Amino acid sequence: MPQRLLALIAGFALAAVPTTAVAAPSQLRDCGTQVKQSVGTGWCQGSGTFTIKVACDDGTTVTGSWIRISSGYGIRMLSCSNEALATSAAIVEAP
């Protein structure tokens, strides 16, 4: 009987655990970008997740991996390939 009671309690405890996490609203601030030669740079302060997209003069677009910051500062630099020049950079926040 005690084993059955423990199994029942454990089942209720597991049922109470959420199966998906809900992302907190982004609190990114003071974000900016810079383009110099073939490199695009993006940065943000605060808390949240972001990446950058860099457009290159050969028509390609380079997208970085996601950066997650928590009450801090994040920076990402990406280069265009094949000696192409960067024409613009944009911050993209995680959905």
Automatic annotation (TrEMBL):
Superkingdom field: Bacteria
Signal peptide from the UniProt entry: 1-23
Keyword annotations from UniProtKB, A to Z: Signal
Protein name: Alpha amylase inhibitor
Highest classification ranks of the organism: Bacteria, Bacillati, Actinomycetota, Actinomycetes, Pseudonocardiales
